[in-house]
RNA sequence: GGAUGGGUGUCGGAGUGGUCUAACGAGACAGUCUUGAAAACUGUUGUACCAGCAAUGGUACCGUGAGUUCGAAUCUCACCCCAUCCGCCA
């Protein structure tokens, strides 16, 4: 959600933003609706003022005749007021609907593009792993080592179902523990949030109304969130913070549920794309200025880069192009890990900032040093998702004998150096 | 699944359809008094939108939305939310 005043004064920017994000949105339609809204508001407020003024007269009328006369006058005003309010009601529906579709404006540094193929590489780290043998993919390795059962996963859950077993489970716990130490050591408060959430939180974060199809829903009308970002953003909804409390840094840990409704042909094999997984997520609320947003955005992304580096997995970082940005995102970095068997970098992390797009919808404010109420800025980034991280971890660290070398930093958490011996 | 009670300002808490510009109390802030503090006393104390360069003016907000009325915190209806009890489960 953007400020209507800002939209009116910068409608060209909005039009360019929509085009860059490949979102079909006509800002002129919103301006037209807003013109009607303003007119109806001014007009009905004037009539109401008249009515308010007459009220005292009616209450203190000296004679019944005087009173009857005043009431008769106000009956006329009432009819006019009802007409204005009818207009206002109709246009407000339209207006609110349009306001929910206004895209946030991408940063200058976001490249143009039509799809994730146009994302701009800004960093590569590590050597793409070379093998003196024919590397296998993670499904083959894990199945052979009793770490993964896709067949029975499918039997029980259906398409994209999986069982992790044995050392795969231990590896997940090791990664979670390590991540908790790593990110916790950088000032993030660990949080296990509710992931079955009320609808309002999804509107607030910008996942609704557009993302309805990708979400699981309960019979009570609640939703299973696809990321801990949703409940963490809801945490301070409708609250006013003090500037001294900012920035707030959270490390959420939660299961994540995604229907992957629009991705039926994509990544049909293995652990890349699944309906339920676990994720540690960084969320920050900070002061309302662009520099702070940029600073924390870089910080959040660097945290995950350094985490991946400590595991010694080759990766690259991209700036997502316009078409790959969500409605509310100003800028987004993806970190992609090298997957040897596919010979491709695959997304593992996504860090974005929103300015006050989310906090306006959620009504998260703070008082700045002058005492002025302001909407905070929000940003978030993946810390680490499981089991997706296992794909590149296992494929990059596989050995000729079919075993897996555990990254040294994880040995302390995992308990042994090699899986499969 | 069944039953009941309740949503008022920063908080507690009143509120017979018109003077609600929401009583009263607490808190916070400022001042008086004081060597300083406490106490006491006095005053101030929300948010959003519209018009305006501004000073300022207007409107709305008592959970949300409709309705009745010249006029609604107050009456009617629907919904949302909160709490408690019983049952069931962990």
The gist of it:
The chain is of the alpha+beta class and 421 residues long. It has 13 helices and 18 strands. 37% of the residues are buried.
Any overview of this molecule?
The protein has helices at 4-9, 11-20, 27-59, 64-99, 138-144, 150-157, 167-184, 199-205, 229-234, 290-311, 357-362, 388-396, 408-414; strands at residues 120-125, 148-149, 163-164, 189-191, 196-197, 216-217, 223-224, 239-242, 248-257, 276-286, 315-319, 331-339, 344-353, 364-367, 373-375, 377-386, 404-405, 418-419. It has 421 residues and is an alpha+beta fold. A hairpin with a 4-residue loop joins strand 12 (331-339) and strand 13. Helix 3 (27-59) packs antiparallel against helix 4 (64-99), helix 5 crosses helix 12 and helix 7 (167-184) packs across helix 13 (408-414). The mean pLDDT is 92. It binds one RNA strand of 90 nucleotides through residues 38, 41-42, 44-46, 48-49, 51-52, 54-56, 58-60, 67, 70-78, 240, 373.
